[in-house]
């Protein structure tokens, strides 16, 4: 039987259209990566899913979709994750057609805009990276979590384009003998990484919320 224990949580970052929540991931300066120890687990890129949700037009037009993890691994020792990292393939960013309701727009239009230099500039920066810096127990009396059943606080360095910051967010992790599953839901501020449409403070940028909700379901298997 599997046991929920301290372990790894994934972050995928997507920031281009904002969302609305007060459960912000704590954002700080870049920190030293955690020293890894224990058995290696490889992230299953076929079954790992990441969702993003945001709003446009001052919050009245929800946008949402998915993005894929390119590769990554984590280390587990004595039932706990000791470190890990993964890369996110920003060229795989997809917008759900149901989130684009304007009659003259398509999901592919939104995808192309998010991939353009206005936002992620994937031609120049095709990937994002997350490196674990620490794993701590989650205390529901001190922290809030959008996801019920959070067990841990995960901190890690998130690199978007040419900027790296450390973020901390709650996650629910389950470690088995041969695999690890992780789920999380949290909010980041795209502008912390300098991702602004047009210029900061412009009407165009104001229409796109700075907050972005990220959700993921991750699975990793023991090598």
UniProtKB/TrEMBL annotation:
Keywords: Signal. It comes from Chitinophaga ginsengisegetis. Residues 1-25 form the signal peptide. The keyword Signal applies. Residues 40-221 form the Lipid/polyisoprenoid-binding YceI-like domain. Pfam families: YceI. This is Polyisoprenoid-binding protein YceI. The lineage of its organism: Bacteria, Pseudomonadati, Bacteroidota, Chitinophagia, Chitinophagales. InterPro entries: Lipid/polyisoprenoid-bd_YceI, TTHA0802/YceI-like_sf. PROSITE patterns: PROKAR_LIPOPROTEIN. Gene3D superfamilies: Lipid/polyisoprenoid-binding, YceI-like.
């Amino acid at each position: 039987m599997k046991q929920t224990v301290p372990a790894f949580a994934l972050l995928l970052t997507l920031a281009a259209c904002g969302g609305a929540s007060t459960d912000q991931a704590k954002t700080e300066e870049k920190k030293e990566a955690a020293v890894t120890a224990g058995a290696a687990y490889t992230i299953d890129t076929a079954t790992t899913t990441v969702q993003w949700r945001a709003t446009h037009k001052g919050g009245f037009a929800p946008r949402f979709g998915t993005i894929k993890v390119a590769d990554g691994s984590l280390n587990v020792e004595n039932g706990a994750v000791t470190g890990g990292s993964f890369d996110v393939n920003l060229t795989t960013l997809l917008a759900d057609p149901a989130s684009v309701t304007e009659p003259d727009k398509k999901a592919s239009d939104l995808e192309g805009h998010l991939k353009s230099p206005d936002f992620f500039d994937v031609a120049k920066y095709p990937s994002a990276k997350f490196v674990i810096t620490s794993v701590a127990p989650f205390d529901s009396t001190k922290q809030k979590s959008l996801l019920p059943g959070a067990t841990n606080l995960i901190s890690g360095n998130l690199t978007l384009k040419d900027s790296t910051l450390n973020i901390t967010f709650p996650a629910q992790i389950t470690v088995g003998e041969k695999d690890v599953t992780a789920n999380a839901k949290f909010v980041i501020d795209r502008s912390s990484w300098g991702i602004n449409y047009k210029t900061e403070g412009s009407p165009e940028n104001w229409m796109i919320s700075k907050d972005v909700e990220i959700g993921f379901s991750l699975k990793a298997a023991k090598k």
